[in-house]
Amino acid sequence: MSEKQAIQVINLSGSLEISNAPELRHQLQTEIESGTEWIMIDLSRVSFIDSSCLGILIVAYKTTRRKGGVIKFVSPSPQVKQIFDLTRLSQHVEIYDSLAECEESFV
Questions:
Q1: DSSP code of residue 98
Q2: What Cα–Cα distance (Å) separates residue 86 from each residue in 9, 33, 75?
Q3: CA distance from start to end of the chain
Q4: Hey, where are the domains in the chain?
């Protein structure tokens, strides 16, 4: 019987751009290095994401997968969803409409 793992929710907000990229990188690295394997990133309050922060999300996603974990994205705003679609990131990651729906997907 496997033990249910804890799911960490990371809530992001505002405009994710180069000026706050170091903080985002640090937050994600800290979570991944602490051994967290199941991560939900709530994007519902993110109004914009530039290429530097998108790159940080991709690196965090790949690093987590390499360590046997997963990052899933939740409730991107229409603008952020459009960026995920234009970059085709939405074809490679799991995106959910709600935290509850995303949490259920880990079972």
A1: S
A2: 25, 30, 17
A3: 13
A4: 7-105
Is residue 78 helix, strand or coil? helix
Dihedral sign for Cα 32, 38, 42, 47, please.
positive
Q: Please give the CATH number for the structural domain made up of 7-105.
A: 3.30.750.24
Whole-structure pTM value: 0.91
Walk along the chain (107 residues) and give the pLDDT tens digit of each residue.
344 578 999 999 999 999 999 999 999 999 999 999 999 999 999 999 999 999 999 999 999 999 999 999 999 999 999 999 999 999 999 999 999 999 999 87
Q: Which of 74, 77, 71, 85 is nearest to 36 (CA)?
A: 71
Q: Are 56 and 25 in contact (CB under 8 A)?
A: yes
Q: Say if residues 31 and 1 touch (Cβ distance below 8 Å).
A: no
